[in-house]
Amino acid sequence: MHNNYNVAVLDMNAGHPNEGMRCIKALVTEFLSEDHVGGNFDVFEVRVEGEIPAVEDYDIFISSGGPGSPMILGEFWEAAYFGFLDAILRHNLSKPNKKHLFLICHSFQMACVHWDLAKVTKRKSTSFGILPIYKTKSGEHEPLFEGLDDPFYAVDSRDYQVVGPKEWKLDTLDGKVLCREKIRDHVPLERAVMAIRFSKEIFGVQFHPEADSLGMLHYFQRADKRDQIVKRYGKTKYLDMIAHLDDNDKIMKTNHTIIPRFLKQAADNIDAFKLLSV
């Protein structure tokens, strides 16, 4: 017997080509291809077409990263996107059949801005590379991180950062800060928040857990990107990043863990609800 799940993928890339969407689609396709799992997924082009999924039509939502500022800029699609975030929250507060949402990087930042759960600020310089992510005490008990080292490694690529989480507001949602960025002893700045469990059903990360070695290798080998990285960070850093791609304990371990676990956890919760409803 197949359990069917409808998955909505919100593309926040504003029409820019990227490897992240390929990776998200691959992970969702893999999940829907497992034994006793069926269903379908649809992609919504949010920032170009203003497409937003209807909350009642889907069980699981993944909202991607994307370029540009996560601040409220008055763009035509923003009100609908923020309405979508609120609709998920409202649904889960009032209905027994919960909706599950995973927010990546740009989407994560926008949720923090919209729900006023933390400050989002522009970084002094871009954070870019395959970087260590450190678990908080709460993060050590987070099921989606089970099996990942502390620190674990992920692709980080951002000009903005989430800082100063409002813990009391997170408490009202039963939310928790789960990870922070690397410790920088020589920099007197607050460490950015890298993951938050907003609620039992809503999870967000500042990094890119979807990234895989193939996509990053394509990205790093593009002449413009290679030259950009070497110019900004030096050849040693560039070669180090390439070397990390072949390390099974780095981004592929993260790729195989966080989003697949999120999808499985969501499916298990949906199945449990269906059983209770029979």
Q: Would you give an account of this structure?
A:
- The chain is α/β, with parallel strands linked by helices and 278 residues long.
- The chain has one domain (3-123, 136-148, 160-211, 254-277): Class I glutamine amidotransferase (GATase) domain (Rossmann fold).
- It has helices at residues 19-32, 46-49, 78-94, 106-114, 167-172, 213-221, 223-233, 235-245, 251-277; strands spanning 3-11, 37-45, 60-63, 100-104, 119-135, 152-163, 176-180, 193-197, 202-205.
- It has a 9-stranded mixed beta sheet, sandwiched between helices.
- Strand 1 (3-11), helix 1 (19-32) and strand 2 form a beta-alpha-beta unit.
- Helix 7 crosses helix 8.
- It is globular.
- The relative contact order is 0.16.
- The model has no long low-confidence stretch (mean pLDDT 91).
Q: What's the name of the CATH homologous superfamily?
A: Class I glutamine amidotransferase (GATase) domain
Using only C-alpha atoms, the radius of gyration works out to 18 Å
Task: Say how many strands there are.
Answer: 9
Please state the structural category: alpha/beta
List its traits.
278 residues, alpha/beta, Rossmann fold, nine-stranded mixed β-sheet, 9 helices, 9 strands, 25% strand, globular
Strand-helix topology:
Elements: E1 3-11, H1 19-32, E2 37-45, H2 46-49, E3 60-63, H3 78-94, E4 100-104, H4 106-114, E5 119-135, E6 152-163, H5 167-172, E7 176-180, E8 193-197, E9 202-205, H6 213-221, H7 223-233, H8 235-245, H9 251-277
Parallel strand pairs: 1-2, 1-3, 3-4, 4-9
Antiparallel strand pairs: 5-6, 5-7, 7-8, 8-9
Helix pairs in contact: 7-8
